[in-house]
Fold these 2 entries.
Entry 1:
Amino acid sequence: DILVWKDRAGGNWWLQVGGYNVGYWPSYIFSDLAHSASAIMWGGEIFSPDAGQTSTHMGSGHFPNEGFGKASHIKNIQVVNSSNCLNPPSDVGLITERNNCYNVQTGNYGDWGTYIYYGGPGNNPNCP
Ligand SMILES: *[C@@H]1O[C@H](CO)[C@@H](O)[C@H](O)[C@H]1NC(C)=O
């Protein structure tokens, strides 16, 4: 479990992993995030200096449509509101720059809540 939230008293952004507070980002290092966030992103990111020609895997290296046991996923996606309560995200958009290299799918189902499958192999015959 990964949780990021803003401490209302101190204004710092805290990171909790597996129930343990790992540390925080002091509020003074932020400008746009000083009071709150207006958007939140989950997923993966690959950087290549040669504009996309990389076989670096994102996630497990499998595409989202390969599903559970193959593709990487994030489940129970929730958002902390200004009352420090968790809520399902209200408006989930998907961003992918080269969907033959890496892709993403979202859904909402049972105890998984809002989830995404994401990733891919990078360079492949359809991703030159
Ligand atoms: C935060 O979420 C809780 C639980 O859904 C809700 O009761 C509360 O009104 C929300 N607070 C704000 C400021 O939206």
Note: The pocket of 2-acetamido-2-deoxy-beta-D-glucopyranose is lined by residues 81-83, 85, 87 (CB under 6 Å).
Entry 2:
Amino acid sequence: MNTAEIIEAGDRWVMKTYGRIPLALVRGRGARIWDADGREYLDFVGGLAVNSLGHCHPAVVRAIAEQAEKLIHVSNLYYIEPQVKLAAQLARNTCGDRVFFCNSGAEANEAAIKLARKYARVNGNLDRYEIITALKSFHGRTLATITATGQAKYQQGFEPLPAGFRYVPFNDPEALREAVGPNTCAVMLEPVQGEGGVNVAEPAYLLEARKLCSEKGILLIFDEVQCGLGRTGKFMAYQHYGVEPDIFTLAKALGGGFPIGAMVAREEVAAAFAPGDHASTFGGNPLACAAGLAVVDQLINHGVVENAARVGAYFMEKLLEMKGRHPVIREVRGKGLMLGMELAADGREVVAFCQQRGLLINCVNNNVLRFLPPLIITGADVDRAAGILEEALKSCPGG
Ligand SMILES: *Cc1c(COP(=O)(O)O)cnc(C)c1O
């Protein structure tokens, strides 16, 4: 099918939950991707922080192909070799001890919400159920996770929302302290907010959140679905802060494009779940975990996290230089290869211009350009992207 045919069929048959860009991508390799008409693009969207190893990384392709020949799925009634190996890898490289596997970020956060409530319950705190989250956060699209999400636009039209969530401004330690009450069982935060505009937590904020939770005997949950797994230049974003959560969640990059999510907890917290308390049919199946093992191996043992730190710092430097030349740029922020550029103009025009010139980028909140390229990109890729972006900014009103 060519681009026009794919778009026509998509508009006719697929539910209209996405405001789609009229582009059909059919093939990828590394940081390059091609549309159905054969046009090549440099991909700085990266499946929205999913394709951290680039497209069709040979190690991931091999792991999936080999596992598919052996065993694709088996019930969680039985022990699963790739699952136990991936759980061990995640526990050994983080502050977590035990892992629950699911299929997406929203499901990982649902599992975290359930575990936090159950943990309070089994420890005799029968009236602790409330979870405090941040404004501008994003935690997923299920009913509980849109409620956890501190943005009204994701909630409107889906009321009544589940009870037990409360919001505080991000990076405001006093507001957080004031919000914790007798019903609070946990605080859930993204160390770097993604969908909310690439907002980086202040070190003092996460330190204070940790102190507060320990003091009150409530749980600190980090949603690392977007910022985890090397994205910020460390394996986990919380490692920049010297602050360890009781529970953290992963998804996006974990399977290299294959769907998988994980909720990871400290031993004492994980112990609140008994057999039968939570489950997922596909969660942690052999194929997904084989993909996850290949991804984690590349991240940790093949220098991918270090590359994200190095190339991310270089890209940040380039963006800051651009800020000096273009008054339309309000702020450049982020960590590693999770970077944002806030504009005093509509960012969607910049996105369209870049696409015309062969560069895919994303825009959140209509005015924050978000860059989530594969973590395997080179300085030359950054130079090329920065060149196109600069041209786009020149063409911007007030650029
Ligand atoms: C994308 C995202 C989610 C939701 O993940 P899905 O796989 O789409 O359910 C949750 N939290 C954060 C921080 C995310 O970026």
Note: The pocket of pyridoxal-5'-phosphate is lined by residues 104-106, 109, 138-140, 190, 194-195, 223, 225-226, 251-252 (CB under 6 Å).
